[in-house]
Amino acid sequence: MNKKEISIVKRMLGKGKGAITQLNCCYIRQDGSVIAETKENFVMLTDEEQEKYLTIFKKCLTGKEGKNQISIDFPLEAERLGHMQAMLYTWTQGFETPSEVYQRIIQSYTWDGDQFVILLGSGIYNLPAKASDGTVLEDSENVYRFTICCICPVDLAGEGLVYSKEDTSFKAMEKKWTIQSPVNGFLFPSFHDGGPDIHSLLYFSKKNYMQNLSRMGWNVDFHYPRKISKNIFLLRLQKHSRIIIH
Questions:
Q1: What are the Cα distances from residue 87, in Å, to 14, 29, 41, 135, 231?
Q2: CA spacing 20 to 30 A to 28: which of 50, 107, 182, 229?
């Protein structure tokens, strides 16, 4: 995905666009045990809650190509039933349970913190159709069904003195477990040439993309960044990652 395509998806996640329809969350301990699973109708959340989740999702669409964002092509074996691409595709079509997606991530992901949460935002966006002269047509059957996944640390935060309107004074507030900015995530399917590309996804890493790619444990192909020599990119990736390069 190029910058323009990523910007289009980010606009889909704008306030009031209504692209996200369902929110699934899995709250997990470091050892992989599940604390809680939730499912929400996204449009039924308060405006403030929607805004906070959308902010998190859009952070997985930020950063630089080759540093924070990597386009990943699935090999043919990954598109067979039971493999990663097939599972994600059936999930976006509504035929997979979130538990299957959670477990695939939990089993392959290496986490350094105490607790983390997997956020799955499922959405559908009507894509405008254009006539041969470039005119935008009102009626279009083209849609973009997608899932954006964010893996976020959950840390204790918020301890301090907070103003209470009821008591008109500052009161002590205990720390609470709070979702932090995502450290990894992905968008599936990719958005290419004005529509979905079910054979690839956009991978996000907040920091070291080579180290964090290995955390996911996926056997995938990569579009190496244009600004980096292909040979240098593959050597770096193989040095820091367990992923097999095809």
A1: 27, 24, 22, 37, 31
A2: 50
Q: At what angle do helices 209-216 and 98-108 cross, to 10 degrees?
A: 120
Q: What's the rounded Cα separation, in Å, for the pair 164 and 174? A: 14
Render the burial of 42-74: b for 16+ CB within 10 Å, e for the rest. Answer: beeeeeeebeebbebbbbbbebebbebbbbbbb
Phi, psi of 54 (to 5 degrees): -60, -35
Cα 171 to Cα 169: distance, rounded to the nearest angstrom: 6
**Local structure of 156: helix, strand or coil:** strand
Going by C-alpha positions, the residue among 123, 120, 94, 147 that lies closest to residue 19 is 123
A 10 A CB-CB count for 37 gives 14
Rounded to two decimals, what is the model's pTM? 0.79
pLDDT digit string, tens, across residues 19-78 = 899 999 999 998 889 999 999 999 999 999 999 999 999 999 998 877 788 888 887 776
Strand residues in 68-142 grouped as ranges (E): 69-73, 115-126, 129-130, 136-137
Task: Find, among 23, 34, 10, the residue nearest to 154 by Cα.
Answer: 34
